[in-house]
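C-alpha cells for chain A. Residues wanted.
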C-alpha cells in the first residue's frame, strides 16, 4: 500500500487489508515519506475504533527493493502509480489503484477535519473489500 507520506492512507489500508485478507500479507510506504514519523493521531483513533492498533507504525519511503517483494502494489492516487512506474518501469503491470473497483481515488485527509478522515477510512474499507472479492 503506497500513499504520499505513509502516515494516513497507506498504513490504514495495510492494516485493514491484513485484517480482512490475512492470507496475503500487506505492508505500506510513501513516495515522499519522512522515515520514522508516527501515524496521524486521527487515523490511530479511527483504527482503534475498529479494533486495530496503528501505534507501532512508523513511516518509510517507497523504494524498488521493497516493491519487488510483493505481487501487487496498491496506490491511493494515479500520481502515485506514475511516480512508482517512472522509478521502476518493470513494476508497471503490478501497480494498481486501490480504489479501482470502487471508481475512486482515495483522497488524502491529512490536516483536514475528522469527517475527511472518517470518509477516507470508509473509502479504504470499501476498496479493500472490492479487491478481496476479486482475489
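Reply:
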Amino acid at each position: 500500500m503506497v500513499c504520499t507520506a505513509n502516515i494516513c492512507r497507506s498504513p490504514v489500508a495495510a492494516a485493514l487489508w491484513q485484517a480482512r485478507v490475512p492470507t496475503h500479507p500487506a505492508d505500506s510506504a510513501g513516495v515522499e515519506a519522512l522515515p520514522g514519523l508516527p501515524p496521524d493521531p486521527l487515523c490511530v483513533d479511527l483504527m482503534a475504533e475498529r479494533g486495530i492498533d496503528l501505534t507501532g507504525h512508523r513511516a518509510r519511503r517507497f523504494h524498488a527493493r521493497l516493491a519487488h517483494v510483493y505481487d501487487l502494489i496498491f496506490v491511493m492516487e494515479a500520481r502515485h502509480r506514475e511516480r512508482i512506474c517512472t522509478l521502476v518501469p518493470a513494476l508497471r503491470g503490478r501497480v494498481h489503484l486501490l480504489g479501482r473497483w470502487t471508481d475512486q481515488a482515495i483522497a488524502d485527509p491529512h490536516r483536514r477535519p475528522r469527517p475527511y478522515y472518517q470518509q477516507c477510512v470508509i473509502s479504504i474499507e470499501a476498496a479493500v473489500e472490492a479487491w478481496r472479492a476479486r482475489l
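The radius of gyration is 13 Å. The chain has one domain: 2-134.
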